[in-house]
Design brief:
By secondary structure, the protein is an alpha+beta fold. The protein is built from four helices and five strands. The protein has one domain. InterPro entries: SCO5918-like.
């Protein structure tokens, strides 16, 4: 499949991408990720390996679109979990705790 990453054209094949990533240890995932084999890789790491370019030269979106078109499972950044905001009365009640049962 022909795709453009950082203004450069690349002919990518799913099996070639899998072969390129063999033996490469995944970095910790902090943003968008892709599943290759049984491993989760950051898309920027995969983009750097398959294109030979510096990670600052392309966006995660460019690589994600290319990998998704090849049939890889891509995952977006998980939404942060925001704890519920308690009212002052609920906060005081939580601090006091449950009454003891006799």
């Amino acid at each position: 499949m022909r795709c453009v990453i950082a203004r450069f054209p690349f002919d990518l094949v799913k099996s070639d991408v899998q072969e390129s990533m063999k033996g490469i240890k995944p970095e910790p995932v902090t943003g968008e990720s892709v599943i290759i084999g049984r491993r989760h890789y950051p898309v920027k790491q995969v983009g750097e390996v398959i294109t030979g370019q510096d990670r600052r030269d392309f966006s995660a979106g460019e690589v994600t679109r290319a990998l998704a078109r090849l049939g890889f499972t891509c995952r977006a950044v998980p939404a942060p979990v925001v704890p519920p905001v308690l009212t002052p009365l609920e906060t005081a009640s939580a601090l006091l705790g449950e009454p003891e049962r006799v």
